[in-house]
Amino acid sequence: MSAAAGFSSSSYTFDPRPAYPLLSVAKRYWNPDSPYLHDPEALTLPKIREIWALDAPNHGDSAVLNEEALGPGSGYDYIFGWEEYGRSIHLFLSGLGKGVDVDFSMRNIVGIGHSMGAISLGLSMGYYPKINYQSLILCELMTMQRELHMKATNILVNGGEKRRDIWPSKEEAYNILKSRGTWKSWDDRVLRNYVESGMHPLPTAEYPDKREGVTLKCTRTQEVACYRDTLGPRRIYNNFHNIVAQVPTHLIYGAIDDYIAAEVKDDIINNRAGGIANLASYTRVPGAGHLVCHH
């Protein structure tokens, strides 16, 4: 058990094997004591019993546990479908595995996801038994028209294949990232947590011959494998009107149109959702782009 930012927390390993091969690390936060929750304007909001965060199977501590299952010849090493994250979310919330003794069918569940996570929440609705989401909060939903998606895929794959993923130490990684590009705009707490929790020591299965330094838990191979998937995002693009019809959906975009162009956001709202009136709410966050959650 640990405490951070006013929350008590505990980590769990969710194991759906043998039905599904990939483990997931989940973290539970409860009894929040954050000063933000004492804002008088927040008194009208529902009381939050607990918060659960679930890694994608190839991200964070889940990726470390799944190193062998994600490795060469696994089928996940070239394309990691976002459907896999959606399936993991569904298995977890449906209790179809071991390691988390909670009956989520008795809870009022609000799904919150960013980018690939937002898509995966939508994909989790396509399995049975159905998850009874009370609402969805989708931030920077990463889906768009086919032609634009293919262009974005090529850019992300090319960038991911060239991105640095080894540093001499966590402290040096922090100092290097803090001074460069996108990372300069991140909230310092987010960047420090990214380095501390998102990196681990060498050697790893990805770099068995490197003995010094640290690398990302979500390997460069897996990052790029995520970018190559076009089916998962496409499914949500085609089905978004059904999602907003079934579940109150809150859509959030950054006010800066960087990774997702303004025309894409307009298309999602006006065509795929059928208009702002079909959303529970629509928000643009000033001064933020795709990585709004990191600012």
From TrEMBL:
InterPro entries: AB_hydrolase_1, AB_hydrolase_fold. Pfam families: Abhydrolase_6. One of its GO terms (molecular function) is hydrolase activity. Residues 46-292 form the AB hydrolase-1 domain. SUPFAM superfamilies: alpha/beta-Hydrolases. Keywords: Hydrolase. This is Alpha/beta hydrolase fold-1.
